[in-house]
Amino acid sequence: MKKPSIEERTKIAEELKPYNGEGNIQDETLRLVKECVEKMGISAKPRLCEFSKVEPYDKMPKDKDRELTSLIFIQFTKDGYIAVVGAGEDINFNFSSYKGTTGKILKELNHEWYEKSLIMVTVNNLKAVAASKVKNVFESRNGVEHYIGEYLCKNKSMPILNEWSHRNFTEDGWNRISPLKID
Predict the structure, then answer these.
(1) CB-CB contact of 106 with 159 (8 Å)
(2) What is the pLDDT of residues 146-155, one digit of tens each?
């Protein structure tokens, strides 16, 4: 699957409106992620974390295949957007940096990283990063990341600026391997 260029992703993000639902975007995102984790039936702990209290990567669960961190994270902007749904050890802790795809989109659209907190979903008992290595897609980090990101995208009030970051499968590919459809 070929993902759009940064320029194409920026144009898509430019059309989004900030979150305007009840409460704040962090709390509503956490509520939806908990709902999503329950649907997947996985052992995971979604939580809103202050950046200063994020545990070191070496203390997080690892997958059994390659010993990579079994972490899904969601970062926000100051003005009511989800910046990115990501996985692994890619959390941006350097808020003055606008490197990487998401950082470049934020910089181009004049958004700033939300520096106080993020959502972390540490997943226990993952067998692999790649879905091709497991029988159940939700035993892979890529499968869990994809489903959470798409679940949030389908909720029209949840604007994800880099909505392609979490997309690890085409829609047809996902429908062939997943027991859950994204609705």
Answers:
(1) no
(2) 999 999 998 8
